[in-house]
Every structure is written in structure tokens, then in C-alpha cells.
């Protein structure tokens, strides 16, 4: 994500510092009121630390005889209003912004532990730390809805564009035109192909005239302040002149340091405050240059491209490759820088490739089926029964006498042979007995 200054935290920090440094008020007999932090009180008088600017402090000794009364305000009551305004919004912040807010709330809890606002500060601290953990894990909150890490990675450019455009709108509404233009510059660099870019271009054209007027007014103020500083130096002498010179030098150095830090932070548009005549001159020159650009951006064509790209995405999801291809081609023609077009083109090409492969495979299967159906069918062969072995046993013919059958006489022959063999064996004389010498 692009880093945009968290103005609410900065305001809270300044208020917190002011609470520590400007919690007391000394009312003088001449009607003057001195606000600051009382460093010491003696019978001779009171020493007060004065916050001249957010970064410059000075000390003033006030005689006791000149003091009418002193009011000491609890510093936590001064610090809390700005910190209570620090709230989590519909968009997540940068990790550094969460840490800055947590530091401010933590310092309040430590420095004013007995304050009635300490419990509320602790609740805010817990809420900021909880969101910080989700952001550290890769999630982002957008329009009150949390997007997963996977969604953020897939739609990163579109998300960055929406977040920055939303901040640009808030800055413009608050009259912070320089901050709005610096946000636009970040959007153009990081998400110039997002769907929010055409809207940001239109808002930019509305901001520039207002910024030019504000810069011209600020130029008059800076010039008047320089003349006033010069007049003050001319009207004082001695020690008082040295004090004034020192304060003016510190203020000039603080302004220069703030401008340098702004430039180092990569902000292309110089601030309205703090400012010098030179920085305001640079700002006016930049505004005039942007306003005089001859050819305005074709936001109508960009919006048409965005609509066509969304149509192509829907067609791709419905697997209508022909419509997706047609719409994405038209979207690219209307705005070649459209990030969604660049992202969808390879997806549609891959879907077309797969579609053609599937089509070729289906055509091949259909052709094979048609060819098979066109071939004449071979006649189905008639099955031949397996040969069966039959033993023919001649049966006696019905009505034939038994003595005339050949089998009868064959059997009789065999039977007679058996009987003769038995008789022969029976009629053989017994074998003579063997001689035994022992007997």
C-alpha cells in the first residue's frame, strides 16, 4: 500500500505535546493572558514555558506584582479531546499509522494513569492493536469490509486506487487541497490503471482552481508575516532585539526543516503551511502548469473501458469465450492502460486455448464415432454345434429269437472256454512230496 500521512494521528500528537507544555494560564493585571507550562513559582515571580510554535519553546518570567491570578488546568483534559477523536474508520491504515496511534494512546495511559479518560484510552489502544495484527497478516479493510490476503494480492491495484481516491475525497472536502493533490500523485503512480483513476482525474480538475486561490491568499499572508517580522526588529533594541532575532531564526529554521522533510517524504506538492515565499511560488507555478494542460484526460473513454472489462470478466466466468474476447478487445481499444484489461487478457487467452483443445478433442471423438457408424456391419456367423460322440450299442431287435442273435453265441463261446479251463486245473495230479533227510 502507498503511504499517506495519517493527519488524525499527527493532530493528536501535537495536541498531546501541547497538553504537556501548555496546561496553565497566568492572568496579568494589565489584562494579558499567558498560557504555558509553569516551571517554577517563587515570591519574586513565576517562570512559564511558552510554546511559540509546535517545535519552538521559550521561557518567560512574570513578576509576582504583575500577576492577578493563576489557573492550572489538568493536562489530561487538554490532551484527551484530540485523542478521543482518533477513531478507526471504514479503511485500514498503514502499520506505521497504527503504531503511531498506539504510541500516543500508550503515552497518555502512562502519563495520566489516574485520569478518568484512561479506560477509554485503553479500549482505543486495544482496538488499534487488533486491526494492526490483521493488516500485518496481509488483510485490508475497505468500505468497512475486510478483504483476505488472497483477495488483496489478486485485486491489489484496484484496492489501492479505491483507498487513495477515498482519501483524496476526504482531503478535498476538508479543504486540504495540497494533501489531496499529493494523494492524487500517489494514486497516479501506484494505481493509474485502476477503476478509480478516471474519478480522481475529474476531482483533480475541481481541486486545482480552489488550490490556486488558497495559494494566492497564503502568498499574501507569508509576505505580510515577513514584513511584520522586519518591523518588529526595527522597533526593538538591546536584549529584547536579541530575543526577537533568536525566535525569528528558530521559526525560520523550523519552517525550512518542515519543508525539507516534506520534500524528502516524496510529496511533489509543496505545503500551504508552513511556507516561505519561495515554496508558495513553487506551488503556484505547479498549479498553473497543471491547469494549462491543453488536452484533458479522456475519462469518458476510460469509464467505457472499465465497463467493457467488467463485462468481459462476467463473460469469462460464464465460459462465453467469444463475448469475453470481443469485450476485452474493445476495452483495450478504449483505454490501453486499464489494469483489469491487462490482467484479463492472458486469462481469456488461456481459456480460449483450453476451449479449442476441448473442441478439437470433441470433434475427433465425433468423427471417430461417425466413421464407425458408416462402416458396413459383417454378417453374424451361425454357431456350429460341437460334435457329440455316440456309442452305438446294438440292441436286440424286437421279436427276434434269442438263439439267432450273434452276441448270444459269442457269449456262450467265452463261457464254455472258462468252464473248460477250470476243469483242466482241477483234474491235474498233486505234486510229489519233497524228501526231508531229518525225517
Tell me what the structure shows.
- The protein has 439 residues and is α+β, with helices and mostly antiparallel strands.
- Helix content is 62%, strand content 10%.
- Among the domains are: 26-72, no CATH class; 299-369.
- It contains 14 helices and seven strands.
- A five-stranded antiparallel beta sheet has the order 4-3-2-1-5. It has a two-stranded antiparallel sheet with strand order 6-7.
- Helix 1 runs parallel beside helix 3 and helix 7 packs antiparallel against helix 8 (197-234).
- The longest helix is centred in the middle third of the chain and has 38 residues, at 197-234.
- The chain is elongated and about 180 Å long.
- Residues 1-14 and 435-439 have low confidence and may be disordered.
- The low-confidence runs, each spanning 5 or more residues with pLDDT under 50, are 1-14, 435-439
Give the helices and strands as they follow along the chain: HEEEEEHHHEEHHHHHHHHHH
How helical, in percent, are the residues? 55-70%
Strand segment tally: 7
Overall pLDDT, averaged? 84
Shape assignment: elongated
Largest sheet: 5 strands, antiparallel
The SS-based structural class is alpha+beta
How many distinct helices? 14
- Percent range for β-strand residues: 5-15%
Q: State the end-to-end distance.
A: 138 Å
Placed side by side, the strands forming the largest sheet appear as 4-3-2-1-5
| Gyration radius from CA atoms, angstroms | 53 Å
Short synopsis of the structure:
The protein has 439 residues and is of the alpha+beta class. The protein contains 14 helices and 7 strands. Among the domains are: 26-72, no CATH class; 299-369.
Amino acid at each position: 500500500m502507498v503511504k499517506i500521512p495519517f493527519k488524525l494521528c499527527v493532530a493528536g500528537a501535537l495536541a498531546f505535546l501541547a497538553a504537556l507544555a501548555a496546561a496553565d494560564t497566568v492572568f496579568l493585571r494589565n489584562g494579558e493572558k499567558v498560557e504555558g507550562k509553569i516551571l517554577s513559582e517563587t515570591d519574586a515571580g513565576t517562570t512559564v514555558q511558552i510554546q511559540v510554535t509546535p517545535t519552538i519553546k521559550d521561557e518567560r518570567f512574570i513578576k509576582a506584582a504583575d500577576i492577578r491570578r493563576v489557573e492550572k488546568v489538568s493536562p489530561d483534559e487538554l490532551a484527551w479531546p484530540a485523542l478521543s477523536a482518533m477513531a478507526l474508520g471504514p479503511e485500514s491504515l498503514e502499520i506505521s499509522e497504527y503504531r503511531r496511534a498506539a504510541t500516543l494512546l500508550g503515552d497518555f495511559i502512562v502519563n495520566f494513569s489516574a485520569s478518568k479518560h484512561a479506560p477509554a484510552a485503553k479500549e482505543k489502544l486495544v482496538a488499534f492493536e487488533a486491526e494492526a495484527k490483521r493488516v500485518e497478516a496481509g488483510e485490508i479493510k475497505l468500505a468497512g469490509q475486510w478483504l483476505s490476503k488472497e483477495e488483496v494480492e489478486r485485486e491489489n491495484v484496484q484496492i489501492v486506487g479505491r483507498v487513495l481516491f477515498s482519501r483524496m475525497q476526504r482531503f478535498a472536502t476538508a479543504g486540504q487541497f495540497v494533501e489531496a493533490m499529493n494523494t492524487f500523485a500517489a494514486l497516479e503512480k501506484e494505481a493509474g490503471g485502476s477503476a478509480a483513476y478516471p474519478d480522481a482525474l475529474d476531482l483533480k480538475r475541481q481541486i486545482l482552481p480552489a488550490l490556486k486561490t488558497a495559494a494566492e491568499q497564503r502568498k499574501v499572508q507569508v509576505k505580510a508575516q515577513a514584513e511584520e517580522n522586519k518591523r518588529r526588529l526595527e522597533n526593538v533594541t538591546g536584549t529584547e532585539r536579541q530575543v526577537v532575532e533568536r525566535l525569528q531564526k528558530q521559526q525560520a529554521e523550523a519552517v525550512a526543516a518542515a519543508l525539507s522533510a516534506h520534500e524528502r517524504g516524496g510529496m511533489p506538492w509543496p505545503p500551504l503551511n508552513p511556507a516561505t515565499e519561495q515554496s508558495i511560488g513553487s506551488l503556484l507555478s505547479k498549479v498553473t502548469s497543471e491547469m494549462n494542460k491543453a488536452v484533458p484526460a479522456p475519462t469518458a473513454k476510460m469509464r467505457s473501458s472499465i465497463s467493457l472489462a467488467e463485462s468481459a470478466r462476467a463473460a469469462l466466468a460464464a465460459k462465453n469465450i467469444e463475448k469475453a474476447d470481443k469485450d476485452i478487445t474493445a476495452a483495450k481499444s478504449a483505454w490501453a492502460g486499464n489494469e483489469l484489461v491487462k490482467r484479463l487478457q492472458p486469462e481469456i487467452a488461456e481459456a480460449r486455448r483450453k476451449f479449442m483443445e476441448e473442441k478439437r478433442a470433441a470433434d475427433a471423438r465425433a468423427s471417430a464415432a461417425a466413421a464407425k457408424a458408416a462402416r458396413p456391419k459383417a454378417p453374424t456367423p451361425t454357431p456350429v454345434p460341437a460334435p457329440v460322440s455316440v456309442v452305438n450299442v446294438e440292441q436286440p431287435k424286437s421279436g427276434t429269437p434269442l438263439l439267432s442273435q450273434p452276441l448270444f453265441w459269442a457269449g456262450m463261446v467265452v463261457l464254455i472256454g472258462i468252464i473248460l479251463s477250470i476243469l483242466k486245473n482241477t483234474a491235474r495230479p498233486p505234486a510229489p512230496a519233497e524228501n526231508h533227510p531229518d525225517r
